[in-house]
Amino acid sequence: MKFLRNAAGQPVCIPRGSVRFETPLTGVFLLGPALPGPSLGFDEMNKAFTREDTSPEQDDDDEVRLPDLPAGSKNYITPAGFSRLREEIKDLIERDRPKVVEIVSWAASNGDRSENGDYIYGKKRLREIDRRIRFLTKRLDLAEVVDPSGQHGNDQIFFGATVHYAENQGVERSVTIVGADEVDLERGRISWISPVARALLKSREGDVVSLPTPGGLLQLEILEVTYPEPGV
């Protein structure tokens, strides 16, 4: 293990083999390119799940399209987010896809496929699964894992921070700044490229920042900035 100090001067352990960077977005630590764990053979899997059905029933939107990121930027993601995507692709490959393949094979053995609902639906579902696998594979290939616990104790806002702020109308909100593949608005998880996150980044507790909105500038007062504890 390597030991470095975060912005608060506290020692933080860094796993052997990790890479240390300093950027305006992520602050001190950028750990990558991937978390430790069993390999899923993503490169081989991606080749295996290329288009295998070119019939007219093929979905028009089968091409994998990746969300836009600012030019030259990385596809930042938290360790938890990376693990979730990795578990999703693992479940798709090892659980969901085999079940659908079994259904399709059974349905195909029942005769005429043109009016076979189980076969038609199964093939459609199989294309959806394969498309999702290709998408996740590309996202994981591009991912740069950032561990926000390296900023624990810091009051400046970087990637992975949970920010409690007040709008000038008195409304208080809390958001956590995460990667584009981790967004969950119901849980207050916003992308680091969103307008709110870009307004908050690099500010500190007590600062007031401006957020352009269709109705004019909104003033946001930073009330509290927190990061997860190392090892939690």
Automatic annotation (TrEMBL):
This is Transcription elongation factor GreA. The gene is greB. Belongs to the GreA/GreB family. It holds the Pfam family GreA_GreB. Keywords: DNA-binding, Elongation factor, Protein biosynthesis, Transcription, Transcription regulation. It comes from mine drainage metagenome. Coiled coil: none annotated. GO terms for molecular function: DNA binding; RNA polymerase binding; translation elongation factor activity. The keyword Isomerase does not apply. One of its GO terms (biological process) is regulation of DNA-templated transcription elongation. Residues 75-145 form the Transcription elongation factor GreA/GreB N-terminal domain. Gene3D superfamilies: Transcription elongation factor, GreA/GreB, C-terminal domain, Transcription elongation factor, GreA/GreB, N-terminal domain. PANTHER family: TRANSCRIPTION ELONGATION FACTOR GREA, TRANSCRIPTION ELONGATION FACTOR GREB. Residues 51-70 are annotated as: Disordered. Residues 154-227 form the Transcription elongation factor GreA/GreB C-terminal domain. The keyword Secreted does not apply.
